[in-house]
Specification:
Length: about 220
């Protein structure tokens, strides 16, 4: 595909702003750290744990096609090790190393917490910034009994993009997440959410530019 342009970045910022919920984190029963391609999730967990927002966190994520090169022993295993190195105590961590999609992240993490005897009425989902809206919608569908909040590293679009190995692939992944926000409710995977016109326009613009590497394939 052609090189990324300033117009592409402007459209990508629109998707970023839409997918980032900007919820205020507060103390919760437990945290669930969702797997993905960004080890920064572990950094966010460490910061939130130091702030005493939770005493227990489940790292969830197995070996996936998207991340097996970066995290060959599974996302949760690598994220846990990073969190330990950043000072999160081992006794605060539970591990779920089999999930390969967001629905499984939520469902399997819930099972791990219940198996550990944790009583959960509120949960903090810690994930990549542009994954917040999809994670929230999935949890509301899969675990409707709990209050759901989302948190990530506090980075701007430009800061996050600059830190990526491949900015084009990052934008494509965000386009894929936005597609899932729109498509998953009809499949029963997530709750319905309003998608404003400017967001749909930015999505279509980036699709037309070829940022579709992470589209749903069916």
């Amino acid at each position: 595909m052609p090189p990324i342009t300033d117009a592409d970045r402007d459209a990508a910022r629109t998707l970023w702003d839409f997918n980032l919920l900007n919820q205020r984190a507060r103390p919760v029963s437990a945290a669930v750290a969702l797997g993905g391609c960004d080890i920064g999730v572990a950094t966010a967990v460490a910061e939130l744990h130091r702030a005493r927002l939770f005493s227990t966190v489940v790292f969830t994520g197995g070996v996936t096609e998207a991340t097996q090169g970066r995290f060959p022993r599974g996302e949760a295993v690598h994220f846990r090790e990073a969190a330990l190195a950043l000072g999160v105590p081992d006794e605060a961590i539970l591990l779920e190393a089999h999930a390969t999609n967001t629905g499984q992240n939520i469902t399997f993490a819930r099972q791990v917490l219940e198996g550990a005897g944790e009583r959960v009425d509120s949960v903090l989902l810690v994930c990549m910034p542009y994954m917040q809206r999809r994670a929230y919608a999935t949890c509301r569908r899969q675990w409707p009994e709990v209050e759901v909040l989302c948190a990530s590293q506090k980075l701007s679009f430009d800061e996050y993009a600059e830190a990526q190995d491949d900015e084009t692939d990052f934008v494509a992944m965000m386009v894929g997440d936005t597609q899932r926000v729109m498509e998953y409710p009809s499949r029963g995977f997530a709750i319905e959410q309003e998608v404003p016109g400017p967001v749909r326009d930015a999505f279509k613009q980036l699709c037309g530019r070829g940022y579709n590497a992470w589209f749903l394939r069916d």
